[in-house]
Each structure stands twice: as structure tokens, then as C-alpha cells.
Amino acid sequence: MESGMLSRTQQALIRESWRRVSGSPVQHGVVLFSRLFDLDPDLLPLFQYNCKQFGSPQECLAAPEFLDHIRKVMLVIDAAVSHLEDLPCLEEYLCNLGKKHQAVGVKVESFSTVGESLLYMLEKCLGAAFGPDVREAWIELYGAVVKAMQRGWEALPEGN
């Protein structure tokens, strides 16, 4: 992961916007995943717990196991925000997270939809405070996170 890819201004914009969102991680995470399922309903079957298939996004979003997943996703975002000055320290963790996502059938292409959903959630939660500069800073950060996760895919041989 490239260190120093975000300017100090971008880091400050990300920190301030995240501070306003991170107080209610599950609530805001539900907004993110609701949007994700709206954009790509085919992702719903990837989320199974105890071999239980969810019949609808609403059923999934209400399941305690899925709410735990939402908490974990929000913690990953929080870790990235907490390490803006030293994103390379998250490289191994994010690479392994990529491997885990590949193992459960997530396609690399789905991360662009997740990115759109993240931006949607931030815009809904921040309103007018989610201006073009804030949006661009988040796009840069998310791009760096996804790049590190993609290296997890590349580390596995084909067919695994």
C-alpha cells in the first residue's frame, strides 16, 4: 500500500466525516448494505449463516449474524481511517481479508458496487457535509483498501 497517497487535507476530511458516522456503525452499515443489495441483489446468497439462505435483503439485514458482519465491515473502515498516515501497516490484514472474501465466492468486481454503496451511505449520513472534496478523499482511501484486498486474490493459485 502506498504511504502518503492522501494529502493532509484529505486525511482531515476523511477523519471528520468518519467521526460523524462512526458513532452509529450498525445503523449506518445497514444503509450501506441496503444500498448494496439494491444495486446487486445477486450478492444476497453470499450471506449464509448456519446454512440458512435469506429470502430477502430485509431478512438478511435483520439477522443477528449479519449485523455482526456489518460491525466487522465498519471496524475495517475504522481501522483504515485510524491508520491514514500509515496505511501500509494494514497491508497483510487487508490481503488476508481479500483471501477470505474470495474463499466465500465474492468476485473482485463486487468491490466497485461496495464502493458505490459506501459513498451512498456517507452522502445519506452526512448530507451537505459530503461535498466533492470529501467524496474524492473517500474514493482514494477506498481504492487503496481494495487494491490491498485484491492482492489476496492474486496470492491464491487459480482454482482455489
TrEMBL record:
It comes from the Eukaryota. One of its GO terms (molecular function) is oxidoreductase activity. It comes from Callipepla squamata (Scaled quail). PANTHER family: BLR2807 PROTEIN, NEUROGLOBIN. Its main location: cytoplasm. This is Neuroglobin. InterPro entries: Globin, Globin-like_OT, Globin-like_sf, Globin/Proto. The keyword Oxidoreductase applies. It catalyses: Fe(III)-heme b-[protein] + nitric oxide + H2O = Fe(II)-heme b-[protein] + nitrite + 2 H(+). GO terms for cellular component: cytosol; mitochondrial matrix. Gene3D superfamilies: Globins. It is found in: Cytoplasm, Cytosol; Mitochondrion matrix. Transmembrane segments: none annotated. Belongs to the globin family. Pfam families: Globin. Monomeric globin with a bis-histidyl six-coordinate heme-iron atom through which it can bind dioxygen, carbon monoxide and nitric oxide. Could help transport oxygen and increase its availability to the metabolically active neuronal tissues, though its low quantity in tissues as well as its high affinity for dioxygen, which may limit its oxygen-releasing ability, argue against it. The ferrous/deoxygenated form exhibits a nitrite reductase activity and it could produce nitric oxide which in turn inhibits cellular respiration in response to hypoxia. Residues 5-154 form the Globin domain.
